Structure formats: C-alpha cells, structure tokens
Amino acid sequence: MNAYRVQILCAVAGLLLAGVARAELPTKQSNVGDSMSQGSGADGWPGDHPELSWVQGTSSTVYSVFMRYQELVPSITQQPESVSGAEMVGGGNNFAAQAARVCAQEQKPQHVSVLLGANDVCNRPRSSSSDATANMYSLDTWLNALRAGLDQLAACLPPGTTVHVLSLPRVDFLYNAGYAKGLWCPYVVWPTAGICRIVTAEKSSSRRAQLGARINEYNEATRAEVALYEANADGRNPRGVHFVPDWQGSIEDGYSNTSVGTYVFRAADINGTDCFHPSTLGQRKLACATWATNPDGAGVVSECFQ
Prior knowledge:
This protein has about 300 residues and is an alpha/beta fold. The chain has helices at about 5-20, 65-70, 95-105, 120, 140-155, 170-180, 185-195, 195-200, 205-230, 280-295, 300-305, and strands at about 30-35, 75-80, 110-115, 160-165, 240-245. Helix 1 packs parallel to helix 9, helix 3 runs parallel beside helix 5 (about 140-155) and helix 5 packs parallel to helix 9. The longest helix is centred in the last third of the chain and has 26 residues, at about 205-230.
C-alpha cells in the first residue's frame, strides 16, 4: 500500500478516537495564495482583479467563497494575504510568510483557504535531461514548506478554525486549454511573455504528462500531511484547528473532477491575455468546487465543472 495512503488511514483512525471539534460559522476569513487567488487576468485585462477571485471576490459573476459565506453570515469580514507571484516554497511571500501574516492579524480568522504551488512549478526552468521533472522541487522540499505554514496556523488560530488546503492544478492541463484557445497562445503569447516555460516550452506531450504526475505527487503528499494535522499526530495540532484537504486522489486513480487538482481546464476556463490564468468562468468553477469541499459548504464538485 502507498505510504501516504497508510498515513491517511492512521490519521482518520486518530480522528475517530479523538473527535476534533467542528467550528461555528466564521465571522472572518483569510486566504493564502498567489495570482490565481488574486483574480489575475480573469477579465482579460492584465494585473490583479481580486473582485473576480474564487476566494475573496465580490462580483456576482464569480460568486466567490466569501460571497457564499456572506449569505450565511452577512456580517462576515475578510483579510486576504495572497500575493501574485507567491510560491509554497521560495520567496518573501511563501506559505510560511503568508501564514505569519495571518497569525499577526489583530482579529484572527476562523476560516483560511490555502491555494499555492503553481509558481513553484512555473518558476523552475525547463529540464534538458530525460527527466522533465528534474528541476522541480523535491517532495521533501515541498513538504517542509507546507509544514512551515501549517505549523504556524496550528499554533495561532482559534480552536475549531477551518484551514481548507486546496490541491494544485495541473499545468499540463492548463497548457492543453491554452493550446485549444488559439494558436496565438503557444506561438505568440507564451514565448513573448515567458509564461510557465517549464511546460509551455515543452513540445513533448509525454514529458508534459511527467510534470502533471509530479504535481499529483505534491497533491497526494499534501493530503496525507493535512490529515496528520487534522488528527493531531505528534501533537502538531494541540489547539484543535480543523485541517481539511480537497484532494481525494488523481484522475489516473479514478478521481476525475473531485478536486481543483483533478479538473481538466477547457479553453473557456482561461483568459485570452496570458492564456494560462483562469478566466471569470474558470474562477467561478473554482469557487463552486471549493465550496463543495468546504465543511461549511455544499454541492457536488463534478457538477461545478460541467
């Protein structure tokens, strides 16, 4: 049996014995993320458009997580910490840095959404070796960065707070969506703007699939790690924060359209400016799918992606 699956089973057993308490509906939310959470390019114009973000948006065209909470708690507030260009691992706005800013908020949120990792892939140079993933972060490096953020949130958030950790979208699927959008994407936009060259400069579909397989590994490892925090394994979650992943498993294992990381993006789901970031429609689908896996939410993930 896969080692991560064993960890998850052990974590679930711990939950059954310990019974982590559920939180009340939040009166404040925050989020950790990158340009995807900033609504970058969603309306076809360059730059951040947070009003069109899946998580913090205020536009009814997206119907964000924040707006869905507003229907349940009209007085809810938010204090986002996401920054375009952020990585899980590196840079001044990585997970650990954003988590520290969440912890420094005067009023702590009772719900935190986490979506990071696209830049960890896209900022790596394309490999010239037989292994397309050779320049990507190792699984150990990824997990160390994940723990650095989760440790801080576990130590500072109020008991019962939900930390919803979302899976990383597949860059090979984004490549396919951009290619389907029009030839100006692969032949003009991507090389001119230098968009995610680890995948957009990769001509081999099998090598692009290797990148997708490594992202699956990141997502599987993240799910296992989040489950350990949920179960307070090794005392890492003494305050009883509720850690929830959206990842159920890979498409290859039969879990198509069950999480953000298993959605095969279509041409209409990405914008026509950089041909890589989600469009308004794509942001709306992400908001719907996130709400469906949120303990406070409702819905069926697969229906969000129709």
